[in-house]
Amino acid sequence: xxxxxxxxxxxxxxxxxxxxxxxxxxxxxxxxxxxxxxxxxxxxxxxxxxxxxxxxxxxxxxxxxxxxxxxxxxxxxxxxxxxxxxxxxxxxxxxxxxxxxxxxxxxxxxxxxxxxxxxxxxxxxxxxxxxxxxxxxxxxxxxxxxxxxxxxxxxxxxxxxxxxxxxxxxxxxxxxxxxxxxxxxxxxxxxxxxxxxxxxxxxxxxxxxxxxxxxxxxxxxxxxxxxxxxxxxxxxxxxxxxxxxxxxxxxxxxxxxxxxxxxxxxxxxxxxxxxxxxxxxxxxxxxxxxxxxxxxxxxxxxxxxxxxxxxxxxxxxxxxxxxx
Amino acid sequence: xxxxxxxxxxxxxxxxxxxxxxxxxxxxxxxxxxxxxxxxxxxxxxxxxxxxxxxxxxxxxxxxxxxxxxxxxxxxxxxxxxxxxxxxxxxxxxxxxxxxxxxxxxxxxxxxxxxxxxxxxxxxxxxxxxxxxxxxxxxxxxxxxxxxxxxxxxxxxxxxxxxxxxxxxxxxxxxxxxxxxxxxxxxxxxxxxxxxxxxxxxxxxxxxxxxxxxxxxxxxxxxxxxxxxxxxxxxxxxxxxxxxxxxxxxxxxxxxxxxxxxxxxxxxxxxxxxxxxxxxxxxxxxxxxxxxxxxxxxxxxxxxxxxxxxxxxxxxxxxxxxxxxx
Lengths: 324, 326
Prior knowledge:
Strand content of chain A: 15-25%
Protein name (chain B): Monosaccharide ABC transporter membrane protein (CUT2 family)
Number of domains of chain A: 2
Number of domains of chain B: 1
Distance between the termini of chain B: 32 Å
Radius of gyration of chain A: 23 Å
Number of helices of chain B: 14
Largest sheet of chain A: 6 strands, parallel
Keywords (chain B): Cell membrane, Membrane, Transmembrane, Transmembrane helix
Oligomer: heterodimer
Strand content of chain B: under 5%
Structural class of chain A: alpha/beta
GO molecular function (chain B): transmembrane transporter activity
Helix content of chain B: over 70%
Number of strands of chain A: 12
CATH class of chain B: Mainly Alpha
Largest sheet of chain B: 2 strands, antiparallel
CATH topology of the largest domain in chain A: Rossmann fold
Helix content of chain A: 40-55%
Subcellular location (chain B): Cell membrane
InterPro entries (chain B): ABC_transp_permease (IPR001851)
CATH architecture of chain B: Orthogonal Bundle
């Protein structure tokens, strides 16, 4: 029995040791902030999509351009890795900690540690769910409701006569899906001619978008517009519309959100009509905020990423420089 | 045998009738660009990958095993093929890419078979290894990006038609071949024997390990072809979402079809019905417009109803209560 317990204990100790090792490995090896250069610790979610990769690259490039010493770690979509990385940054006494929280809850303890060490925290891309707003200085990220409103505005401006819209929702319960739906509905409410006749989730994937659109094409007698919560579902819908012998972009108009490269290509080719941007390139804004925070200037608690919209003409012009 | 297929059959007909009542246009068929076009055709096309994986799963389950890694294997096949094709529009590149992917899938099946038959690890744990690692491998192959291809030959596998969707023709052909190979020879009986009692069948001279090994390789190859269908349908490989949770759909299809998870007894016709029920259910949700918040509950209610009416005990209890009330 005793032998078993000691074996178990040594295994646990060994695990803890390796865990520490990997944690500090991810956070780089130079210690502390020195002199005038600002040191920033950034804990990224992972590399789960093209959007995220572009987000990472933007932060790394802009940090270099702004002369900020960046310590970067990748949490591989796990909260415990992210907490470990943040603790590491606290020990190294960086000037600013920035991170995109993997999940919304469970951050109070580690952020309190940062607060006690007098290290300001900036959230990027995703918010946290905490009653204590003093735990972070500001949240920089997209306003998903506003993205939905932009799509709705275009719809209202371009609708001629009665318009039947079908909606391809994102993953049920995900913040971008809920908010993009809300913003769109808010805007089209002003025009009773525009109706959402069917709305189903396509799980943010191309296969999902295609399957749902195939079903809509059979069950709905008249579809004028598809509103997809991301480019991928819109691209799936294009395939379904083509298979039905209709021309995407002409017979059925398509509005999407994101503006990733594949979506922009389809927009430039005339298969999508309008894309609302969800911008991963927030590096520059992040560095500006960081400088202000370090100087002790006041920053607004919520900063919205600079985002535009693209029509087919704008897509043709923007496509060659598109990074993601 | 007939009785076992009766209830899933009734469930399928009931689902189709529900569609007929709510959206009569569901059954409308027309010719579009030289092929059939309609709601039923969609059910066949989108159900083809699930059916194919379920066929492989049926044989694995018949040997008292289970393969959780099929979804990940499907993602790997899609990733490898799309990365190989890249921007090339040639038919040759597409064929080579698919061949490489399927050989790789067979190798992954060998790995599963090695863990189960060679090392004697519990199938659910042995295949869990590849279920978790496989998606990581697919992510490495695609570097976390969605790989879009533009290759007409490749598009045919999942989105092409020869009157009927090519994908369902492939799945039905595999189903036919498996039925022939297992029911017209002793192979089926040997698989069932291994499922009933591997040790006894080994002592009786059945090469149990070889048979177990073979069914895992077969299941992985089926999963690979299904992965090609899924990705070819949208001309893109997405390591994150290709074949996600399809192992659950496939296991469900097998169980609805009347194959026992305890191994030993299997029904290929039942698996066909099961896969079609699952796909009809998904398509029904979209066509009759079930609100997204209640979709999962709706599906669960249908599945549990189908399972209950299949259970002789539940049926007996139900009819007993009816008699008692009257």
